[in-house]
Write a structure and sequence with these properties.
about 190 residues; globular; single chain
């Protein structure tokens, strides 16, 4: 069990450096589809295992346009706004349905504006992932220390749900490996 604890703690330490680009850090230049897919992969592959969950494909992006989740590209090029939507959608779809994501994005966009909503989402998702990392390291962590404004409850809950799912998946992966290697006493 000590080896299992060490591996989980090491993974938790790796999560402490996870960063999502804020609005100001997203590319200023418009991008083609393959560039968008590569960028989303770079941003999210540390927390979404592509072998378990498809990150993003061109078909998905086209479907998001058809469903009205993101605006249509202009001359096959995607802007900073598109990339922001795709980062949020790709993470949120791990824990919410597409209609729930659409409603949440519409609400947050109207409540605080797209730029602020995206930055809030990134901040909350990073915080939740960092907390999951600290939990993986064996720390006792309080999830909230202050009252959450009503308009932010869904964002906080969704980001914590993703982080909790991430932690659960990692622990199950490590336990499975641990058992396959014969390191688990089934007599307990």
């Amino acid at each position: 069990m000590d080896e299992l604890r060490k591996e989980l703690a090491t993974w938790g330490t790796e999560l402490s450096t996870f960063h999502l680009p804020k609005w100001e850090e997203l590319p200023e230049l418009d991008l083609y589809m393959d560039q968008v897919l590569t960028l989303i992969d770079r941003y999210l592959s540390p927390v979404i295992q592509p072998e378990k969950h498809t990150l993003l494909t061109s078909s998905m992006v086209n479907n998001y346009v058809k469903l009205g989740l993101i605006p249509a590209p202009e001359k096959k090029r995607y802007s900073k706004r598109h990339v922001a939507f795709l980062v949020a959608i790709t993470l949120l779809k791990q824990v919410l349905t597409i209609p729930e994501i659409k409603e949440g994005i519409l609400f947050q966009g109207k409540a605080v504006g797209i730029r602020e909503a995206y930055n809030l989402f990134c901040h909350e998702q990073e915080l939740a992932i960092h907390i999951a990392g600290r939990q993986a390291q064996g720390e006792s962590v309080a999830i909230t220390q202050q009252e959450v404004p009503l308009e932010y409850i869904a964002v906080k809950a969704a980001t914590y749900s993703f982080a909790a799912k991430l932690l659960a998946e990692k622990m199950i992966e490590l336990e499975t490996t641990y058992m396959k290697e014969g390191n688990f006493d089934e007599q307990r």
